[in-house]
Automatic annotation (TrEMBL):
Compartment(s) of residence: Membrane
InterPro entries xref list: Ammonium/urea_transptr, NH4_transpt_AmtB-like_dom
Keywords per UniProt: Ammonia transport, Membrane, Transmembrane, Transmembrane helix, Transport
Species of origin: Macrosiphum euphorbiae (potato aphid)
One Pfam family from the record: Ammonium_transp
GO molecular function: ammonium channel activity
Sequence intervals crossing the membrane: 17-36, 57-82, 97-116, 123-141, 161-182, 203-221, 233-257, 269-288, 294-313, 325-343, 363-385
Protein family per UniProt: Belongs to the ammonia transporter channel (TC 1.A.11.2) family.
Protein name, per record: Ammonium transporter AmtB-like domain-containing protein
Ranges where the Ammonium transporter AmtB-like domain occurs: 18-409
Keyword Transferase: no
Length: 444
């Protein structure tokens, strides 16, 4: 009897460490997002975007502890939200490992939005949306899909590692946020200079590699345990399929670019990394069950969807600097739909595919509606009270100095083209700051 109890205790400890260690690895995706977003913005906004990505871990921890985890997994028998464990009250200490792993998922969902509103979002608005998304919007959706009491789970919805629950939700919120906040100054002007291409490809590359590594734990550890028979096989298959999803997308984007079908470059860098990330997002729904060939196919189709949205969103005059909508909304929606089409022999060989497709379509629609309503209320409120966006002057000067008074790079002058492609005139903004006010002088 003692030996059996010791064995069960050992299994629990191993499962907890599995979640904790992988949760720590997933948390390094924040480093990836920080580097990726910092490299994609202008030098004058790098401090701002880095601060947001750092604080995501800590602000989201408080909101998820106070409210989020209880809404997601608090029990109580409700189909739509949990009713227990708010602020940790009544939560068994044995659930701390689960809490930690689920918390980093909530932080990931919140941090995705920062890329869509980069370079013009007010800092107080960032705090608001981080708290609400990680404390309310995401937890309720995760209750629907992953809690034993959740209504989507009960009707057969299947989403192994968050194609819908994390990525579709965050991508939808990102689009609404970008729509409400409006484009960056001059972004869609026909005479504006091409000043929104980022500034550091090494940072972008480093961030992408960190995201890829974090993604492996994100998908692999979503099983939630490692001590049951067959767990190792499922985790290994999930990790391998995550790579294969990105591989499928990489093949498609390189072929299409080389053939001159997309973009101006024949070997595009930024477009390739976003396509790869989209491919990895696309396999999240059934990453534990796909064959490797199926994962490659899902990633390939995901890349096509990414390219379509990457072309459509700017033509709607929606400014999404990190292409968050194309990567996460496109990949997440396709990931939910692809699951019944490609798992267990494929749509043509699996009689359960049609019911699962119906359940997943209901789930995807519900998550989109939930995200749109929440985001419209949240960002609409911030916009009405003039809390959402910084002033035009602050945006031109840069958020690093206008909000933080801390430059990411040791420069004394910021040169801004006057907006005319053929003009040699340059406006020089020289900064002189004290504890109260900021002054600048314009010279030709």
């Amino acid at each position: 009897m003692t030996t059996q109890l010791d064995l069960e205790e050992l299994k629990l400890n191993i499962d907890d460490m599995f979640l904790v260690i992988n949760g720590i690895i997933v948390s390094f995706m924040q480093v990836g997002f920080a580097c990726l977003e910092a490299g994609c913005v202008q030098p004058k906004n790098v401090t701002n975007i880095l601060m947001k990505n750092i604080l995501d871990l800590f602000i989201c921890a408080i909101s998820y502890w106070l409210v989020g985890y209880g809404l997601a997994y608090g029990g109580g028998g409700c189909l739509y939200y949990g009713k227990e464990f708010f602020a940790g009250v009544g939560m068994p200490s044995s659930q701390n490992g689960v809490w930690f792993f689920q918390y980093v998922f909530a932080a990931t969902a919140a941090t995705i939005i920062s890329g869509a509103v980069a370079e013009r979002c007010n800092f107080i608005a960032y705090i608001f949306y981080s708290v609400i998304v990680s404390g309310v919007t995401y937890p309720i959706a995760s209750h629907w899909t992953w809690s034993p009491d959740g209504w989507l789970l009960k009707i057969g919805y299947s989403d192994f590692s968050g194609a819908g629950t994390v990525h579709l939700l965050a991508g939808t919120c990102s689009f609404v946020a970008a729509l409400f906040i409006g484009p960056r100054n001059g972004r869609f002007s026909t005479i504006a200079p091409n000043e929104y291409n980022g500034h550091s490809m090494p940072l972008v590359a480093t961030g992408t590699l960190l995201l890829i590594s974090g993604f492996l734990s994100f998908n692999g550890a979503s099983l939630g345990h490692i001590t049951k028979p067959g767990d190792g096989v499922i985790v290994a298959n999930s990790v391998a399929n995550t790579i294969f999803g990105g591989s499928g997308a990489a093949v498609v984007i390189l072929i299409m670019a080389k053939a001159g079908l997309v973009g101006e470059s024949r070997w595009p860098f930024a477009m390739t990394i976003n396509a790869v990330l989209n491919g990895m997002v696309s396999v999240c729904g059934g990453v534990n069950q796909y064959t490797h060939f199926s994962a490659v196919m899902v990633g390939m189709i995901g890349c096509i969807i990414y390219l379509v949205l990457q072309w459509v969103v700017p033509r709607l005059k929606v400014d999404d600097p990190l292409e968050t909508t194309a990567v996460h909304f496109g990949g997440g929606l396709w990931g939910v739909i692809a699951t019944p089409l490609f798992v267990e022999g494929g749509f043509w060989n699996n009689p359960d595919s049609m019911p699962l497709l119906k359940s997943n379509l209901i789930g995807a629609g519900s998550i989109i509606v939930w995200s749109v309503v929440n985001s419209a209320i949240l960002f609409g409120f911030l916009r009405v009270f003039d809390l959402l966006r910084v002033s035009k002057e602050k945006e031109i000067i840069g958020l690093d100095m206008s909000l933080h008074k801390e430059q990411a790079y040791p420069v004394t002058n910021i040169f801004i083209e006057n907006g005319h492609k053929n003009s040699n005139k340059t406006t020089v903004i020289r900064h002189a700051y004290d504890n109260v006010a900021m002054q600048h002088t314009l010279q030709q």
